[in-house]
Amino acid sequence: MQNFTFHNPTRIIFGEGQIAALDAHVPPDARVLITFGGGSIKSNGVLVQVQAALGDRAWHVFGGIEPNPTYETLMEAVALAREKNIDFLLAVGGGSVIDGTKFIAAALRFDGEPWDILAKQVEVCDAMPFGTVLTLPATGSEMNNGGVISHRAKGDKLPFRSDATYPVFSVLDPVTTYSLPPRQIANGVVDAFVHIVEQYLTYPVDARVQDRFAEGLLITLTEVGPQALAEPHNYAVRANLMWTATLALNGLIGAGVPQDWATHMLGHEITALHGLDHAQTLAIVLPAMLSARRESKRAKLLQYAERVWNITEGSEDERVSAAITATRVFFERMSVGTRLRDYQIGGQSISTLIAKLGEHGMTALGEHGDVTLDVSRQVYQLAV
């Protein structure tokens, strides 16, 4: 196991009816900006619960944060927060809303051009405090310090993270997920699955706790993912899905182990160019990435085959291939396409995708730093 330091300051408030607990965790004299996405929190009653829990506090709302939150929209929220003298942010939604709120929190206290936080990876030393009410289990953003933001005009999608952008608290009420459309549930399952794989499917370092934890989470997703689609109001299923997605990226399973994240970087470029959902791009890239890098990942792929998919027969090559196929089949069982052609995209954009990777400095990705632009091109070609 590699050396590590693990610290996560976010308080989790989990369970049905816990939105009411906001009153105990938002400062009593706070001026709150509630951020959200497309407006479903209005129709499903979540916004009413949030506002009731805030009581007599001054609050304002900012909606319209996109599924891939854009710099342009978030800077509008920054302007509103300054106009209304906001001193606490409350993200109500899924990972995109929470990612966007992290950026708003950072931009409000950043001395300089906020886009530099992303484009130049300028360190964020301070941010406005914020909490979250999670309504879509997927990204784990409710319990980590990172986010990914797009710039509509530039065609960029870039990550950032800072110790200053951990949520103070996150409320996780599985009931808020009952009204989600199947596409969002499926995307959430795929997103969480790939988050775990990026931290697990690398190379062995005898981190037995992290490996078994990751494998347990992956198996849980293979069980509850299809159930969540078939039984939208099954509280136990939604509770297990929500907590698994949070644990997938709160730093715990990634402590002391090598991490990959090449699948995410290639996926970001597909979203920026073609506008696909984040999870859709991960489902496209991951099977191709595993195929292209099956030799460098062989030991962990064999472990993954046995422990997650119960594949124990056949040669090593056959077991590796079967594990990659099982991954693809699971995504497709969740009704998420696993090839570019499933989204009417051919190979004509590969050169543009590679150019963008080069522009963003993504020339030595992966746990070994050996995912060059040539390897990325091969992955994109395998994904067509």
Description of the structure:
By secondary structure, the protein is of the alpha/beta class. It folds into 2 domains: 11-176, Rossmann fold, CATH 3.40.50.1970; 181-383, Dehydroquinate synthase-like, alpha domain. Helix content is 47%, strand content 11%. The chain contains 15 helices and 8 strands. It has helices at residues 22-25, 40-43, 46-54, 71-83, 95-108, 116-119, 182-200, 208-230, 235-247, 262-274, 278-292, 298-309, 316-333, 350-359, 373-383, and strands at residues 11-14, 31-35, 58-62, 88-93, 130-134, 146-151, 156-161, 169-172. The protein has a 6-stranded parallel beta sheet, sandwiched between helices. Strands 6-7 form a two-stranded antiparallel sheet. The protein is globular.
CATH-scheme architecture of the largest domain: Up-down Bundle
Largest sheet composition:
6 strands, parallel
CATH class of the largest domain: Mainly Alpha
Q: Uncertain runs with pLDDT below 50, 5 residues or more?
A: none
Helical fraction equals: 40-55%
Corresponding CATH superfamily of the largest domain: Dehydroquinate synthase-like - alpha domain
H/E element order: EHEHHEHEHHEEEEHHHHHHHHH
Arrangement of strands in the largest sheet: 1-8-5-4-2-3
Cα end-to-end separation: 37 Å
Q: How many strand units? A: 8
Shape: globular
What structural class do helix, strand and pairing data support? alpha/beta
> Which fold name fills CATH's third level, the topology of the largest domain?
Dehydroquinate synthase-like, alpha domain
Cofactor: Fe cation
Enzyme class: oxidoreductase
InterPro entries: ADH_Fe/GldA, ADH_Fe_C, ADH_Fe_CS, BDH-like
EC number: 1.1.1.-
